[in-house]
Specification:
The protein has 112 residues and is of the alpha+beta class. 37% of the residues lie in helices and 14% in strands. It binds zinc ion (ZN) (2 copies).
Length: 112
């Protein structure tokens, strides 16, 4: 059901440059999800370019799709730390389950 487009390297690099400061190897997580209650509204976690693609923990980062069906564009690409990515993914999964349950309920009502 997912039509998610993988980001190209160029898109990820452009988003990364936006997220990092003068030191190109270190960026700051761009997560501003209110639910996470980050101090000052933005996640303070620092991430290293070479942590990309690592699994688990907070020492990895992901190029997150703001809009899952959106384009391969830096504006749609958020650089997020592992901790935030896991929370975002878990939350999306929960929403999907709620929606699936609601759809099933509607279907049942139709059949009754
Ligand atoms: Zn974060
Ligand atoms: Zn966050």
């Amino acid at each position: 059901m997912s039509d998610k487009i993988e980001f190209s390297e160029a898109t990820k690099e452009e988003a990364w440059i936006r997220a990092c400061g003068e030191d190109l190897l270190w960026a700051r997580c761009e997560c501003r999800v209110r639910r996470h209650r980050h101090r000052n509204g933005r996640c303070p976690n620092k991430i290293h370019w070479e942590w990309r693609g690592r699994e688990g923990g907070s020492t990895y980062w992901e190029a997150h799709h703001k809009d899952p069906e959106g384009p391969d564009d830096p504006d749609n690409c958020l650089i997020v730390c592992g901790t935030c990515h896991e929370e975002i993914t878990a939350h999306q999964q929960k929403l999907r389950e709620i929606r699936a349950a609601a759809a099933l309920e509607r279907l049942k009502n139709l059949l009754e």
